[in-house]
Amino acid sequence: METESEPYVRLATLRQLHQVVADLNTARSLADTLQTVADGIVVGLGYELACVNLVRPDGDLVVAAFAGSAAAEALITGRVGSRPSWERRLSMGEAWGELRFIPHTEGWVLIEDDVPQWHTEGPEPRFEDEWHPSDRLYAPMYASGGGRELLGVISVDRPRNGRRPGAWGQEALQMYASQAAIAISNARLRANMQRALVRLEREQQALRASEESFRQAFEYAPSGMAIAEMGGDQHGRLLRTNDALCRLLGRPASAMRRYSFADLVHPEDVGTLLRTSAEGGRAEIRLGRRDGTYIWVSLRNSVVADTADGPRFLLTHVEDIEDRKRHELQLAHRASHDALTGLPNSAELRARLSSRLCERPHAAYASDIQTLDAAYDGDGEGGFRGDGFDFDAVGGRGYDHHVHTVAPAGDVDDGTKGLAVLFCDLDGFKSINDRFGHQTGDAVLVEVARRLTTGVRDGDTVARLGGDEFVVLADGLGAADAADLAVRLRNAIILPIRVGGRGVRVGASFGIGWASCGMSVEEVLQSADQRMYIEKRSRAKVHRRAG
């Protein structure tokens, strides 16, 4: 069962993974890219050691980069392992998707082959998924396209948590290896194109040869390429596109010459495109296809000088990142949503609630804040600053274009509209688990989640806090509105639920709390929780009297 801290760990790991994947495309050379790949394993994926083995032109693999141990790096960097030995390793052990895991019980036969490796002694594992010092985990890197050309292999060792990676860790490593392969291919392509551009600056004869080299690199590049005009009335217009880009967007080359990237970008990504500088600019945006759909791409710009007058053309490399974006969204959703019901989980609930609450000012600065509040001139610069006093630093963040969250004064509707927090606890759920089993209990939770979601408005949040506890965030309600909503949701929940041919019932107790600026997230949830228990005790007393 997932612990309460695991969603936070996943979110933190996902942020690190997103950063190291982004760093793969910032390296200036192939050597820097290879080292960045190795460093990313250690920094972002939770392993202590990482080795990048790159395929040479003769087919053997050389240790091109290492991270995590200076001693091991000095020992094996530059050493070569034969292709047959590597192919043997990639056919052994357990296949984890594209990954290959060779446990220590099998890996002892590889000690004498010619693949460069490091070996540490250690005790036998104490539990089933503990990492043994002689375990081996490999992530092959393949070139894009249908041929599955092997570019290299990433070797990892010593997970920091001491355990073999689970399904989420395996998927993250596999996705990282896929992005590393793209980065290495791109680095090679950029190196080839840069060499071609250097030759363009030489004599006329070398210019003609380089133009042909550039043409072939442009036309036959596996990813999209475009040349756009710079300056003048036609700034940004696409002058030339290669076949890969035309196939990616489903548009013929003749039609592409009528557009710029600004004409094709998704409306929500226009700002990102405009903020991308021409020289060395990079952006991740969505471009429109001919069929009306959008695809995520990474744009990387280089300026091509036509004459001594200066830059004239913009060379843009367009990489399809749809799969990576889909994986990121899936990982983010799994880290922030409950696996059973699909509702936002506790971490996501707290994040959404926190975004609506500005911080409580420190008590020591209360009088200063009142003085500054009166002096605040509303100049739109994000807060008052003067005499070395930083208003935002003492809790004035709410003044930076923040609409304060307020709450009704009491249970009587005074006309105030606020953010209602409805804490819901199911009554009688434990007896369903005890009588019919957890499978029936899970089905009840899924149906309750559906009824709650159906009963609220678009824009409201229904989250599963854990167990049989749910929380609803509903903005813009008065006290009477919130009470009516609680009644409607309770009436929806208490209807019979059909599970496996039988009808079961659960009750529901609701507590209504209110969020307001100055409160912490925990205070808001605790207030609603306490009101729910008060209601539960009150209803229990009424039930006993009626009995």
Report the end-to-end length measured between terminal Cα atoms: 39 Å
Largest sheet descriptor: 7 strands, antiparallel
Counting copies of identical and different chains, the oligomeric state is single chain
Average pLDDT: 81
How many H/I helices?
18
Query: Low-confidence segments, ≥5 residues, pLDDT <50?
Result: 1-5, 361-400
* Cα shape: globular
Describe the structure.
The protein is of the alpha+beta class and 547 residues long. The protein contains 18 helices and 20 strands. The protein has helices at 6-23, 30-44, 70-76, 83-89, 104-107, 167-200, 204-219, 243-249, 253-256, 261-264, 270-275, 322-336, 346-354, 366-375, 429-436, 438-455, 479-493, 521-546, and strands at 47-55, 61-67, 80-81, 94-96, 99-102, 136-142, 150-159, 224-229, 238-241, 282-288, 294-307, 310-320, 385-386, 389-390, 418-427, 461-466, 469-477, 497-499, 502-504, 507-515. It has a seven-stranded antiparallel β-sheet. The chain has a five-stranded antiparallel β-sheet with strand order 9-8-12-11-10. A four-stranded antiparallel β-sheet has the order 16-17-15-20, sandwiched between helices. Strand 4 and strand 5 (99-102) form a beta hairpin. Helix 6 (167-200) runs antiparallel to helix 7 and helix 16 packs antiparallel against helix 17 (479-493). It is globular. The chain starts with 5 loop residues before the first helix and ends with a helix. The model is unreliable at 1-5 and 361-400 (pLDDT under 50).
